[in-house]
Specification:
about 190 residues, alpha+beta, Beta Polymerase, domain 2, 2 domains, 8 helices, 5 strands, about 40% helix, Nucleotidyltransferase family protein
């Protein structure tokens, strides 16, 4: 199966999981939810789904209440949260581990933010990425992400996107050399320049 086909199959699985768990429906009861990251960009390599939700006043108890019934789903292995309101992330993080099949565990990362939150937001990247990506750039990004996964190298995918879209980096070796110059300890405000 080719790169783009594999990514499309993963996206289809991700959307089925979201539908089964009714996650967007749940989050939309307390704010405005967005599927973001690789799922939104059709660049899924790992079993990972990202959601950002924006509301008036982020409240962990309210969010856990809408997610609580997921604990009765035998495919939901883990449900947890962490309060990052007093950090630069300025939000509340939730995570679900979902067992699609015995050898396939999906991580669902969900952030709850205030509508007035400032700083980098994945929600704001979705349309910019859609406008910037071509089939060729998608192939380079997917190749790099697959190679990194095979090598068990964990880096934020946004750097792969930046390297390919802004610096025309095509192979993993070039990417890793470029990464040596990047500071991954700070939140990036990167946006595609094309």
């Amino acid at each position: 199966m080719k790169l783009l086909e594999r990514a499309q199959k993963r996206k289809e699985t991700a959307m089925l999981i979201l539908e089964e768990l009714k996650l967007l429906e749940k989050w939309n009861t307390i704010g405005q939810a967005y599927v973001v990251g690789a799922t939104a960009y059709d660049l899924l390599v790992d079993h990972d789904i990202d959601i950002e939700t924006f509301c008036t006043h982020p409240n962990a108890a309210e969010a856990m209440a809408i997610l609580a019934d997921l604990t009765s789903n035998p495919k939901v292995l883990e449900l947890k949260y962490r309060n990052y309101l007093k950090t630069p992330f300025n939000g509340i993080y939730f995570k679900i581990q979902y067992e699609q099949m015995p050898s396939e565990i999906w991580n669902i990362d969900m952030w709850l933010f205030s509508e007035t939150r400032e700083g980098p937001l994945s929600r704001d990247l979705v349309s910019l990425m859609s406008d910037s990506l071509t089939n060729e750039s998608r192939k380079y990004i997917l190749t790099n992400k697959e190679e990194l996964l095979k090598k068990s190298i964990v880096l934020p995918s946004i750097y792969v996107y930046e390297a390919v879209l802004d610096y025309d980096i095509q192979c993993t070796e070039e990417f890793l050399n470029w990464m040596e110059q990047q500071d991954v300890d700070i939140q990036t405000n990167w946006r595609p320049s094309k």
